[in-house]
């Protein structure tokens, strides 16, 4: 019988305490981000999709088409091609296609690159109704950016 | 500003009624109105007012609920449509109305269609007897209290038929839960009301409020001369009205983590919307009754402030806020917990209160008179 | 209660709980044979999110499989990273620098807190209380921000490498972790007052879903499910790995065997994880975070290797069989929730539907990890 009264009074008290906590939180400042109005800034290490890095002086991609990123990618979403122009010391990338639909943002490609030629972009507002929008031509993107 | 094509598509069916029919109706009314006899005029006006009040409350209580829960959860809640999201209920209503009324295969069609109405109509009917102030009452009935409880019992029939007619296992379980819950909670609630009637000697809601004239210590909540357990009676009444209206923590009938959406699992569009309106109308009724019975209706809490319907609304909305506050604080009880609470706590307490009150009201004066 | 249920009429019906149901938190389907609201027989049906991770491991290089481990249990991804990394490091005999070990412990424990916080919120949500999940998410958000600043991702971290970790942590991370622990210490009493001590909660959890120690052994359940049944077993203490022996922490064990015990184990584990993180932050040594000797094209010698870690949900075991090439010959992942779910069918016989869902929540299921 003592359990009955303990439940009745202790229980009622616990319910009142709960009400106290929720009403206290009603006056706590709002913590949510109002997304489309205030866009969060990604941290420097944020792993977005990859992007080619251009040379500081010429703006041409640093990539030498060694193919390490292509080999490292677990999902096979990188396709790149290059050629060696007459008289040049190293190969130049002619096309660098990222199939973002299969990418899992693991970052193995960036780690495997010995030339610092690819980096993570900070894009995260990626949404589309068309699959083809996610097949990125990274070389074109780099040219558009510079 | 050009509205979005989707918005235009949704709004198109509403253009004809609003642009053409509404002015026609208004014009017609202007000419016909003087010909209507006075008594009928009053009935029509009060009916329209009651329905508008119920619908407006249902719509804006949803908004309030969303705001309250958002702030309790450190969020903002609706804020995009209109200032503070105030137009949100209107847009929600339009959305619900323009949605397809889906009738799944294998449902019991008449029951399925009539169930939402069985929830909403009695709730709206109950508003007829609620006195917002001494004169502001659609119909001053001598048995107002009785009528409200009669209608409140129809509510559960709506839930039962909705769940049964849906041909959905979750809905049937929910309906069975809702019925056993309502049966269990009507007993302590009615015993408490009987106690109150013993004190008030009337079923007329207007008179009950008039008896609580004066300052707040004259409210029945603090009428210790009638029974020292009056605040407990108020609590019992309040808890029971939570359970009657299927509100958390007693929302077993629509326990969404167990029964998907409970008895309205199969309802879409306005079928669901009507259920929803009925739920909120019932909350308003429950809170109004609590205000009338215990908190002095339209009477002001201190004698130097004028009485008026604003006091009634203030108290009612405060109670509704408490209902929401409770909902967003507690987890759900189980059916066993709920029945335990009813049979082991509320019914014994309300019976004790009944005995005590009858002693105080009937026997005590006799003893006093004899000495 | 169960006798009452089972002695009733033979008239039962089948209720398909899932694959889309609010309480299963994913695509788990449970076929329930019900007598009214009582469960006569329950059978979990799996395979709705099977992605053949084990087979993928046989087709990818050792390093390429690392991102997959984060996709098993997306709520405690780092523990799974850790388990796989440990197994492969054992296979290829790779040493991990001390600083990297400390960073691993700090991040894994932060991840464990995040996972338990999410479970706490979702569990109360299962029971119908909608507010605590928002508070829990608010706190979990702080952890995700911290982990994002070092790993670059918020959920599928993929932070560990064979022989160390991907990035070093910086001072802002250390300061942020200390700040967070201070904040969570202040929040925990609120959680207990709002939820743990709530009479409705107690009534719903006490003596519901009993799992006897025998049943735990029979089905191989681990983690908080096991420790809630009075068995003191935690890989971090019993078969210590990484630098766990250097920290002073307790393993919460409760003997009640009910849902409340499992709930309390997890809540106490949050406290213990905070203790570990504090000690690790104090002791954090300087040095490299990556060994230099790891070959790019890793080929562990032939052999059969096993390594286990204590993930948030129990023992995550990783068995790798190497045939000396750059892919695994066989990769077996032992996921804790698979075993934890297995006992659901036996344990929930004769239970009410509402109690069974409360019980299922207390097992802390993550469906992608069950199916793998």
Brief digest:
The complex is a heterotrimer of chains A (about 150), B (about 375) and C (about 375). Chain A has about 150 residues and is α+β, with helices and mostly antiparallel strands.
Describe this structure as you would to a colleague:
The complex is a heterotrimer of chains A (146), B (371) and C (372). Chain A has 146 residues and is an alpha+beta fold. Chain A has four helices and five strands. The N and C termini of chain A lie far apart (80 Å). The mean pLDDT of chain A is 82. Chain B has a domain at 106-364. Chain C is of the alpha+beta class and 372 residues long. Chain C has one domain: Orthogonal Bundle (Cytochrome-c3 Hydrogenase, chain B), CATH 1.10.645.10. Chain C contains 16 helices and eight strands. The two termini of chain C are 36 Å apart. The chains are: A alpha+beta (146), B mainly alpha (371), C alpha+beta (372). The interface between B and C is medium-sized, with 29 and 30 residues.
Pick out the low-confidence regions of chain B: none
Please give the share of residues in helix of chain B: 55-70%
Proportion of residues in helical segments of chain C: 40-55%
Order of helices and strands of chain C: HEEEHHHHHEEHHHHHHEEEHHHH
Q: Quickly give the CATH architecture of chain C.
A: Orthogonal Bundle
- Point out poorly predicted stretches of chain C: none
List keywords for this structure.
heterotrimer; A: 146 residues; alpha+beta; Alpha-Beta Plaits; 2 domains; 3-stranded antiparallel β-sheet; two-stranded antiparallel ribbon; 4 helices; elongated; B: 371 residues; mainly alpha; 12 helices
Secondary structure elements and their pairing?
The complex is a heterotrimer of chains A (146), B (371) and C (372).
Chain A: H1 2-26, E1 50-52, H2 68-72, E2 78-83, E3 92-99, H3 108-112, E4 118-120, E5 135-137, H4 138-145
Antiparallel strand pairs in A: 1-4, 2-3, 3-5
Chain B: H1 5-32, H2 38-72, H3 88-98, H4 109-127, H5 144-165, H6 169-200, H7 205-211, H8 230-244, H9 256-259, H10 269-294, H11 309-327, H12 335-370
Helix pairs in contact in B: 2-3, 2-10, 3-10, 4-5, 4-10, 5-6, 6-8, 6-12, 8-10, 8-12, 10-11
Chain C: H1 2-6, E1 13-17, E2 29-35, E3 38-45, H2 53-59, H3 66-70, H4 77-92, H5 98-126, H6 132-151, E4 160-161, E5 164-165, H7 171-196, H8 199-205, H9 213-219, H10 224-227, H11 235-238, H12 259-283, E6 303-311, E7 314-322, E8 328-334, H13 336-342, H14 344-347, H15 353-362, H16 367-371
Antiparallel strand pairs in C: 1-2, 2-3, 4-5, 6-7, 7-8
Helix pairs in contact in C: 4-5, 5-6, 5-12, 5-15, 6-7, 7-12
